[in-house]
Design goal:
four-stranded antiparallel sheet; 45% helix
Length: 431
């Protein structure tokens, strides 16, 4: 996915659905959540009651409910000064995209196995293509590393994973994507703000709705910037007086370098390194929330070069049968671009292989179960029922869920690696 920096939010609009007996209509009322000190903004927000059609009709594009949601967002845009004819025309042309909702529910970063995820992304073709581009853009990449501290192979790695080096930008009108997600209850507040940011770009004349074609999530250009990231970090890298994230490689890579530097990239550090763990390793030490100094990891038998005082965390994406990585601050920066550990590891590993690093010492297991969001949600609920708090039931195997799994595994006498392999899932009754 793309950088997801969020602009300042003054109001949040969510919908609570009140489901009536079969055959009845469903009422959906926007709920305006305001910080106490911001109640004076209430008159700026349109309070529009919307009526949804029955489920069979509501699943179709351009339902009454969707159009009224867009109307509400349009009122908010006008209240915030986005009043150009281009914005009005853009709002009038927005359509519902069911494929966006479908894609949101099956993001591979959160449901695929680590083995499958890497196999599909670190292909020989992508590695070879990236090496060619490293040489082709050497002068630009050297300049960017000197100015921003981000190595060229890291920028090319992001480029390769986001759009296959510009081979596929996405094919969905960005305003449609953002409006569809803004009117969906799962992440309405975030995508409402991103839609407004996209309209700000249109209002300023920086791009047009017809140019804004991208991913299902509304990300755009070679490195798939969200509108908020474009507004804050995009740079005219080729010096022609405008930012073009689709047509200008220099603009896209310069903007990516600026973004990474601004959110904390350390020029003096690597993203991380693969390590081989001793047979008797205590896996309850793993997890990004348990960093230790490199000197402490070395005392435990882990071998990696670097500053002994550097703080590093251990990540085991496939459990005790797979590879292990010591990761640092720059790994956290990559996670701000995309919060999936699999994605962040893929960025680092592809970057390393672009400059000649060897493949993994330990390959991830290919027989690991591939879990759907619904199965992860079931696992989270079961862990909570058993007294192991797993955080929000969101279908994402995040740090809180992995911690809960470790405690469950310890109680059952299993290897406490926080990984939901088949025996763990069977013990939880998920498989």
């Amino acid at each position: 996915m793309s950088p997801v920096s969020v602009g300042s939010v003054t109001t949040k609009v969510n919908c609570r659905r009140l489901t009536l007996p079969p055959g009845s209509v469903t009422l959906s009322l926007p709920v305006i959540a305001l910080f106490p000190t911001m109640l004076r903004l209430l008159p700026r927000v349109a309070l529009i009651a919307t009526i949804a059609l029955p489920l069979s009709a509501a699943a179709q594009p351009d339902t009454t409910q969707f159009r009224q949601c867009v109307a509400t967002l349009g009122e908010r845009a006008r209240a915030e000064g986005l009043t150009s004819p281009a914005v009005a025309q853009a709002l009038a042309g927005i359509h519902y995209e069911q494929q966006v909702i479908d894609a949101d529910r099956r993001q591979p970063e959160f449901v695929d196995t680590f083995a499958n995820y890497l196999e599909r992304r670190l292909t020989p073709e992508r590695i070879a293509g990236g090496r060619v581009l490293l040489q082709q853009h050497r002068a630009l990449l050297t300049q960017l590393e000197q100015q921003y501290g981000v190595p060229g192979e890291v920028l090319v790695s992001f480029w390769g994973l986001e759009t296959n080096y510009g081979g596929f930008f996405g094919k969905i009108p960005v305003l449609n994507s953002l409006a569809t997600l803004a009117c969906d209850e799962r992440r309405a507040s975030y995508f409402s703000e991103e839609l407004l940011n996209a309209l700000r770009l249109v209002n300023r004349g920086e791009t047009t709705p017809s140019q804004m074609v991208g991913s299902w999530a509304g990300a755009m250009g070679h490195t798939q910037f969200m509108p908020s990231t474009w507004l804050r970090y995009a740079i005219d890298g080729d010096g022609n007086g405008r930012v073009d994230l689709w047509g200008s490689t220099a603009d896209a890579l310069t903007s990516a370098a600026n973004y990474l530097q601004q959110i904390g990239w350390r020029r003096d550090q690597r993203w991380g390194d693969e390590v081989v763990l001793p047979a008797s390793f205590a896996y309850d030490l793993a997890g990004r929330q348990r960093p230790q100094m490199l000197s402490a990891w070395r005392e435990l038998g882990l071998r990696v070069d670097g500053d002994p005082a550097r703080s590093l965390a251990l990540v085991v994406p496939s459990g005790h049968r797979g590879p292990a990585f010591l990761v640092g601050d720059n790994f956290d920066v990559i996670l701000r671009w995309n919060r999936s550990e699999s994605y962040a590891l893929a960025v680092g590993l592809l970057a390393d292989q672009l400059v000649g690093a060897a493949p993994l010492k330990v390959n991830p297991p290919v027989d690991a179960p591939r879990l759907s969001r619904a199965q992860v949600e079931a696992m989270q609920r079961k862990l909570a029922t058993l007294g192991f708090a797993a955080g929000e039931v969101d279908g994402v195997l995040g740090p809180a869920t992995r911690d809960a799994l470790r405690r469950f595994q310890q109680q059952r006498g299993m290897v406490a690696d926080g990984f939901p392999d088949t025996p763990v899932l069977q013990a939880l009754g998920v498989l």
